[in-house]
Design goal:
This protein has helices spanning about 1-10, 20-35, 70-85, 90-95, 130-135, 140-150, 185-190, 195-205, 210-215, 215-220, and strands at about 45-50, 55-60, 100-105, 115-120, 155-160, 165-170, 175-180, 225-230, 235-240. The chain is of the alpha+beta class. The relative contact order is 0.11. A five-stranded mixed β-sheet has the order 5-6-7-8-9. Strands 1-2-3-4 form a four-stranded mixed β-sheet.
Protein backbone atom coordinates (compact mmCIF):
# COMPACT_ATOMS: atom_id res chain seq x y z
CA UNK A 1 0.00 0.00 0.00
CA UNK A 2 2.72 2.47 0.93
CA UNK A 3 4.38 2.09 -2.47
CA UNK A 4 1.17 3.17 -4.20
CA UNK A 5 1.19 6.40 -2.20
CA UNK A 6 4.84 7.13 -3.05
CA UNK A 7 4.04 6.72 -6.74
CA UNK A 8 1.02 9.00 -6.62
CA UNK A 9 2.75 11.63 -4.53
CA UNK A 10 5.71 11.74 -6.88
CA UNK A 11 3.27 12.16 -9.73
CA UNK A 12 1.61 15.31 -8.40
CA UNK A 13 4.69 17.42 -7.56
CA UNK A 14 4.08 19.72 -10.53
CA UNK A 15 5.28 23.25 -11.21
CA UNK A 16 2.54 25.79 -10.49
CA UNK A 17 3.52 27.97 -13.44
CA UNK A 18 2.52 25.34 -15.98
CA UNK A 19 -0.83 25.11 -17.72
CA UNK A 20 -3.39 22.48 -16.79
CA UNK A 21 -2.55 20.38 -19.84
CA UNK A 22 1.18 20.63 -19.05
CA UNK A 23 0.48 19.47 -15.52
CA UNK A 24 -1.54 16.53 -16.82
CA UNK A 25 1.33 15.54 -19.11
CA UNK A 26 3.81 15.84 -16.23
CA UNK A 27 1.56 13.73 -14.02
CA UNK A 28 1.39 10.98 -16.63
CA UNK A 29 5.14 11.04 -17.34
CA UNK A 30 6.13 10.97 -13.66
CA UNK A 31 3.56 8.29 -12.82
CA UNK A 32 4.95 6.01 -15.52
CA UNK A 33 8.56 6.64 -14.51
CA UNK A 34 7.68 5.89 -10.90
CA UNK A 35 5.64 2.76 -11.61
CA UNK A 36 8.72 0.56 -11.30
CA UNK A 37 8.77 1.42 -7.57
CA UNK A 38 5.83 -0.87 -6.92
CA UNK A 39 6.78 -3.89 -4.84
CA UNK A 40 3.53 -5.69 -4.16
CA UNK A 41 2.51 -9.33 -4.70
CA UNK A 42 -0.88 -8.02 -5.81
CA UNK A 43 0.17 -5.54 -8.52
CA UNK A 44 1.93 -6.65 -11.69
CA UNK A 45 2.16 -3.22 -13.27
CA UNK A 46 0.46 0.16 -13.54
CA UNK A 47 0.53 2.90 -16.15
CA UNK A 48 -1.14 6.19 -17.01
CA UNK A 49 -2.01 7.88 -20.29
CA UNK A 50 -3.74 11.13 -21.22
CA UNK A 51 -6.30 9.88 -23.72
CA UNK A 52 -8.09 13.17 -24.33
CA UNK A 53 -8.43 16.65 -22.93
CA UNK A 54 -8.89 16.79 -19.15
CA UNK A 55 -8.79 12.98 -18.80
CA UNK A 56 -6.12 10.69 -17.33
CA UNK A 57 -6.51 6.93 -17.74
CA UNK A 58 -4.79 4.81 -15.07
CA UNK A 59 -4.43 1.06 -15.60
CA UNK A 60 -3.61 -1.31 -12.74
CA UNK A 61 -2.82 -4.91 -13.65
CA UNK A 62 -3.06 -7.24 -10.66
CA UNK A 63 -2.35 -10.87 -9.81
CA UNK A 64 -5.95 -11.36 -8.70
CA UNK A 65 -8.35 -13.88 -10.21
CA UNK A 66 -11.51 -12.14 -11.42
CA UNK A 67 -14.02 -14.50 -9.82
CA UNK A 68 -12.48 -14.57 -6.34
CA UNK A 69 -14.10 -12.68 -3.47
CA UNK A 70 -10.82 -10.85 -2.78
CA UNK A 71 -10.73 -9.58 -6.36
CA UNK A 72 -14.12 -7.93 -6.11
CA UNK A 73 -13.24 -6.41 -2.74
CA UNK A 74 -9.86 -5.06 -3.82
CA UNK A 75 -11.18 -3.99 -7.21
CA UNK A 76 -13.80 -1.84 -5.52
CA UNK A 77 -11.27 -0.36 -3.07
CA UNK A 78 -8.22 0.46 -5.20
CA UNK A 79 -9.79 3.27 -7.29
CA UNK A 80 -10.86 5.16 -4.16
CA UNK A 81 -7.44 4.59 -2.60
CA UNK A 82 -5.75 6.07 -5.65
CA UNK A 83 -8.20 8.95 -5.59
CA UNK A 84 -7.27 9.74 -2.00
CA UNK A 85 -3.59 9.68 -2.93
CA UNK A 86 -4.07 12.03 -5.88
CA UNK A 87 -6.08 14.51 -3.84
CA UNK A 88 -3.82 14.52 -0.78
CA UNK A 89 -1.46 17.07 -2.37
CA UNK A 90 -2.43 20.58 -3.48
CA UNK A 91 -1.45 20.06 -7.16
CA UNK A 92 -3.66 16.97 -7.31
CA UNK A 93 -6.52 18.86 -5.71
CA UNK A 94 -5.99 21.60 -8.29
CA UNK A 95 -6.29 19.19 -11.22
CA UNK A 96 -9.48 17.76 -9.76
CA UNK A 97 -10.92 21.19 -9.01
CA UNK A 98 -10.32 22.22 -12.63
CA UNK A 99 -12.35 19.31 -13.92
CA UNK A 100 -9.69 16.70 -14.66
CA UNK A 101 -11.14 13.19 -14.55
CA UNK A 102 -9.14 10.09 -13.60
CA UNK A 103 -10.45 6.91 -15.23
CA UNK A 104 -9.08 4.04 -13.15
CA UNK A 105 -9.27 0.47 -14.50
CA UNK A 106 -8.34 -2.62 -12.51
CA UNK A 107 -7.42 -5.85 -14.34
CA UNK A 108 -7.06 -9.46 -13.19
CA UNK A 109 -4.15 -11.81 -13.79
CA UNK A 110 -5.53 -12.64 -17.26
CA UNK A 111 -5.94 -8.95 -18.17
CA UNK A 112 -9.72 -9.09 -17.86
CA UNK A 113 -11.20 -5.98 -16.31
CA UNK A 114 -12.35 -6.43 -12.72
CA UNK A 115 -13.78 -2.98 -12.27
CA UNK A 116 -13.52 0.59 -13.45
CA UNK A 117 -14.30 3.91 -11.85
CA UNK A 118 -13.98 7.55 -12.80
CA UNK A 119 -12.63 9.78 -10.03
CA UNK A 120 -13.50 13.47 -10.26
CA UNK A 121 -14.34 16.41 -8.01
CA UNK A 122 -17.99 15.37 -7.86
CA UNK A 123 -17.56 11.87 -6.45
CA UNK A 124 -14.30 12.03 -4.53
CA UNK A 125 -14.75 12.08 -0.78
CA UNK A 126 -11.61 13.00 1.16
CA UNK A 127 -11.82 13.21 4.95
CA UNK A 128 -8.15 13.27 5.81
CA UNK A 129 -4.68 14.36 4.67
CA UNK A 130 -2.42 11.49 3.55
CA UNK A 131 0.59 13.67 2.77
CA UNK A 132 2.61 12.62 5.83
CA UNK A 133 2.21 8.94 4.97
CA UNK A 134 3.28 9.58 1.38
CA UNK A 135 6.41 11.29 2.69
CA UNK A 136 7.33 8.21 4.71
CA UNK A 137 6.23 9.34 8.18
CA UNK A 138 4.69 6.79 10.50
CA UNK A 139 0.94 7.25 10.59
CA UNK A 140 -1.11 7.46 13.77
CA UNK A 141 -3.94 5.00 14.36
CA UNK A 142 -6.35 7.70 13.15
CA UNK A 143 -4.41 8.07 9.88
CA UNK A 144 -4.28 4.31 9.42
CA UNK A 145 -8.03 4.14 9.91
CA UNK A 146 -8.43 6.87 7.31
CA UNK A 147 -6.65 4.59 4.85
CA UNK A 148 -8.61 1.55 5.94
CA UNK A 149 -11.93 3.36 5.55
CA UNK A 150 -11.46 2.96 1.79
CA UNK A 151 -11.67 -0.80 2.32
CA UNK A 152 -14.24 -0.77 5.11
CA UNK A 153 -16.86 0.96 3.01
CA UNK A 154 -16.81 -2.13 0.75
CA UNK A 155 -17.40 -4.48 3.68
CA UNK A 156 -18.83 -6.85 4.70
CA UNK A 157 -17.75 -9.48 2.20
CA UNK A 158 -18.41 -13.19 2.50
CA UNK A 159 -16.10 -16.01 1.44
CA UNK A 160 -18.48 -18.36 -0.41
CA UNK A 161 -16.28 -21.41 0.27
CA UNK A 162 -16.42 -21.09 4.07
CA UNK A 163 -19.21 -18.63 4.77
CA UNK A 164 -16.78 -16.48 6.76
CA UNK A 165 -17.85 -12.83 6.66
CA UNK A 166 -15.24 -10.08 7.04
CA UNK A 167 -16.95 -7.26 8.92
CA UNK A 168 -14.22 -4.65 9.40
CA UNK A 169 -10.50 -3.88 9.16
CA UNK A 170 -9.38 -1.27 11.66
CA UNK A 171 -6.32 -0.02 13.54
CA UNK A 172 -6.58 -0.04 17.32
CA UNK A 173 -4.95 2.51 19.62
CA UNK A 174 -1.67 0.55 19.57
CA UNK A 175 -1.54 0.45 15.75
CA UNK A 176 -2.46 -3.22 15.55
CA UNK A 177 -4.50 -3.99 12.45
CA UNK A 178 -7.64 -5.83 13.58
CA UNK A 179 -9.65 -7.96 11.16
CA UNK A 180 -13.08 -8.77 12.57
CA UNK A 181 -14.81 -11.80 11.07
CA UNK A 182 -18.12 -13.55 11.62
CA UNK A 183 -18.31 -17.34 11.40
CA UNK A 184 -21.22 -19.73 11.71
CA UNK A 185 -22.05 -23.43 11.47
CA UNK A 186 -19.30 -25.84 10.49
CA UNK A 187 -16.63 -23.15 10.22
CA UNK A 188 -17.31 -22.11 13.81
CA UNK A 189 -16.77 -25.68 14.97
CA UNK A 190 -13.61 -26.09 12.90
CA UNK A 191 -11.79 -23.01 14.22
CA UNK A 192 -12.50 -23.94 17.83
CA UNK A 193 -11.27 -27.51 17.41
CA UNK A 194 -8.02 -28.90 18.80
CA UNK A 195 -4.98 -27.76 16.83
CA UNK A 196 -7.05 -25.37 14.71
CA UNK A 197 -5.20 -22.23 15.77
CA UNK A 198 -1.80 -23.54 14.67
CA UNK A 199 -3.16 -24.65 11.30
CA UNK A 200 -4.86 -21.29 10.74
CA UNK A 201 -1.81 -19.32 11.81
CA UNK A 202 0.53 -21.32 9.55
CA UNK A 203 -1.80 -20.74 6.60
CA UNK A 204 -1.98 -17.00 7.27
CA UNK A 205 1.80 -16.70 7.50
CA UNK A 206 2.15 -18.26 4.04
CA UNK A 207 -0.02 -15.55 2.55
CA UNK A 208 1.92 -13.12 0.29
CA UNK A 209 -0.37 -10.32 1.48
CA UNK A 210 0.51 -10.91 5.15
CA UNK A 211 4.21 -10.99 4.33
CA UNK A 212 3.88 -7.80 2.31
CA UNK A 213 2.21 -5.99 5.23
CA UNK A 214 4.93 -7.07 7.65
CA UNK A 215 7.68 -6.04 5.21
CA UNK A 216 6.39 -2.45 5.63
CA UNK A 217 5.36 -2.72 9.28
CA UNK A 218 8.20 -0.56 10.62
CA UNK A 219 7.56 2.26 8.16
CA UNK A 220 3.80 2.21 8.67
CA UNK A 221 4.08 1.80 12.41
CA UNK A 222 2.06 -1.43 12.41
CA UNK A 223 2.69 -3.67 15.42
CA UNK A 224 0.69 -6.86 14.97
CA UNK A 225 -2.12 -8.31 12.88
CA UNK A 226 -5.12 -9.51 14.87
CA UNK A 227 -7.81 -11.77 13.47
CA UNK A 228 -10.92 -11.78 15.62
CA UNK A 229 -13.60 -14.39 14.95
CA UNK A 230 -17.06 -13.95 16.41
CA UNK A 231 -20.46 -15.57 16.11
CA UNK A 232 -23.57 -13.94 14.69
CA UNK A 233 -24.35 -12.42 18.09
CA UNK A 234 -20.97 -10.71 18.37
CA UNK A 235 -19.45 -13.10 20.90
CA UNK A 236 -15.72 -13.59 20.32
CA UNK A 237 -14.85 -17.26 19.90
CA UNK A 238 -11.27 -17.07 18.61
CA UNK A 239 -8.51 -14.50 18.32
CA UNK A 240 -5.27 -15.06 16.43
CA UNK A 241 -2.35 -12.62 16.65
CA UNK A 242 0.43 -12.55 14.07
CA UNK A 243 3.72 -10.81 14.78
CA UNK A 244 6.67 -10.06 12.54
CA UNK A 245 8.70 -12.55 14.57
CA UNK A 246 6.28 -15.32 13.51
CA UNK A 247 7.65 -15.06 9.99
CA UNK A 248 11.13 -16.05 11.10
Amino acid sequence: MKNIFFILMASVFLLSCKSKNDKIKDFVAMYNRSSTMINSPMVRSTSAVSSKEDVVDIYVKTTLAKDETESQFMGASIPDLLGKAISSEEPGKELLSKGVKFNIRIYDINDRIITGKTIDKNNLKVSGDLKSIAEGNRPTSAELNELLETFNKNLPVTDPSTGTKTLSIKADTENNIVYTNEVTGETKELITGEGAEKVMKDEMLRSPQVRSVFSRADVLGIRHLKYVYQDSKGHVIKEIILTKEDLQ
